[in-house]
Amino acid sequence: MDRISKAAFRRLPRYHQILSAFEELGREYISSRELSEILEINETLVRKDMADLQIRGRQNQGYGISALRQRIEEFLGLQDVTEALVVGGGHLGTALATYPGFEHYGLKIAGVLDNDPSKIGSMIGPYEVVSVFRLASMIQKHQIKLIILTVPKDSAQELTDIAVNAGVRAIWNFTPRELNVPEGVRVRNEQIVGGFMALSYYLKNLSE
Amino acid sequence: MDRISKAAFRRLPRYHQILSAFEELGREYISSRELSEILEINETLVRKDMADLQIRGRQNQGYGISALRQRIEEFLGLQDVTEALVVGGGHLGTALATYPGFEHYGLKIAGVLDNDPSKIGSMIGPYEVVSVFRLASMIQKHQIKLIILTVPKDSAQELTDIAVNAGVRAIWNFTPRELNVPEGVRVRNEQIVGGFMALSYYLKNLSE
């Protein structure tokens, strides 16, 4: 298989998060009903997602939490290690470079780059900040396929071009810039403010 | 109206981001075709979303970018000011408290709280870090309805309870903890690692 719907694919991170949380609490099974309530989606949809993942539940018990979590990890390739460079060592770059959870997902930060001479050579967590001029050579040396982009938006496209030319195939874009990339390179736009927009709508309609 | 489908609602932040980017480049109109290509969705769907927002395009020109952006802002309540407290002054809390874009969306940070005595009284951007013990009193004093939660997960539920009891109605949750809240309180789970999961899947299938 390894083909599921786009909507199901979008739900995998939430499933994974919920399963991890329940697993930590010592739970072994979770029902489609529980998952549907937490995700606020129809139970039939949960059952369909599980079938797509080739996961079967047990009568009156539900799905084995650990097996389901591992199935999602396998499906998404989280059991392999992906090395990434953090490009931009500001507050957000620092938060991402030192984010404690990433290693559980196979994401390994291979370095942090910045263009500020006062930052280069200083430490961000365990990483010595490297000049952004070394972006291409670091990508080639470590065969990096993924960069995490947290630079000011005016330099986002230029650094993307350099990274793509050096061999990067995926860009996790935390800048508000729309990036142009050639075919075969994937951009994931991370719009932090999107979460606020949903809450703003909720609060607005509360007070009306 | 002010009723649109869940899927359309989820697309609003991306529409907004794209419109803002084009507006900055000096563009006045955008077509449903351009929007559909950038979002990688069907053009018919774009047209339907615009109709839901009661936005009409012009023949051969498309949608007026500025009017459409403002319509989305009005719909989401982004033209009002929402005050929020950042609870947790670590790297992520610092990045969010000092995020330059938030003010454009009406999000105003009213303060930053932390439980670390060495941080209390120090400055994060323009904010003097306040003890987390003052969470309830600050919420009540400023009539805060939203908190941005970036604490370690073991204190997430406890602080949520305190905030909700003090009057908070929306929680922007950056912790991996599933939060229990009473009816009428909205939680938005921000799963930063979700973006990586999608890219990991892409990279995995590249190399197979």
Outline of the structure:
The structure is a homodimer of 208-residue chains. The first copy, chain A, has 8 helices and 10 strands.
Tell me what you see in this structure.
The structure is a homodimer of 208-residue chains. The first copy, chain A, is an alpha/beta fold and 208 residues long. Chain A has helices at 6-24, 32-39, 43-52, 65-76, 91-97, 135-142, 156-165, 192-207, and strands at 29-30, 63-64, 82-87, 107-114, 123-124, 127-128, 130-131, 146-149, 170-173, 186-189. Chain A has a six-stranded parallel sheet, sandwiched between helices. A two-stranded antiparallel ribbon of chain A has the order 1-2. In chain A, strand 8 (146-149), helix 7 (156-165) and strand 9 form a beta-alpha-beta unit. The longest helix of chain A has 19 residues, at 6-24. The radius of gyration of chain A is 20 Å and the shape is globular. The model of chain A has no long low-confidence stretch (mean pLDDT 93). At the A-B interface, helix 1, helix 5, strand 10 and helix 8 of A face helix 1, helix 5, strand 10 and helix 8 of B.
